[in-house]
Amino acid sequence: MKPIKPLGYNLAHPASHRRRSSVAWLVLTAWLLWLALPSHAAPAPWYYWRSKVDGARVCAQTSPGPGWERDSPPYEGPGCQPRTKVIVVPMR
Question: 30, 47, 50, 87 - which has most CB atoms within 10 Å?
């Protein structure tokens, strides 16, 4: 017959409990860091792409396909619009 373990059996063995809780903290910390990674990513720049077939231009963040080549420097604004300029005028 096996002995019956008391309700606080895991608390009576602190080494195994400590090991289990440190692994849990490690997993939790790794998961939280993994979740935070996308928050530091910058948006992709926009480019004008020119068709090799008929010369049509399209604005997109990635190439529309193999028949297109990049035709402009990167734009930071959406839809190939230049970044808005902000002028700060100091008050007197």
Answer: 47
| Burial call 13-39: b when 16+ CB within 10 Å, e when fewer | eeeeeeeeeeeeeeeeeeeeeeeeeee
71, 49 in Cβ contact below 8 A? yes
Lookup result for tokens 């970044």: 83
Rounded Cα distance between 46 and 57, Å, is 13
3-state secondary structure of 62: coil
Give the mean model confidence (pLDDT) for residues 31-39: 77
pLDDT tens by residue, 42-90: 788 899 999 999 999 999 999 999 999 999 898 877 788 877 778 888 8
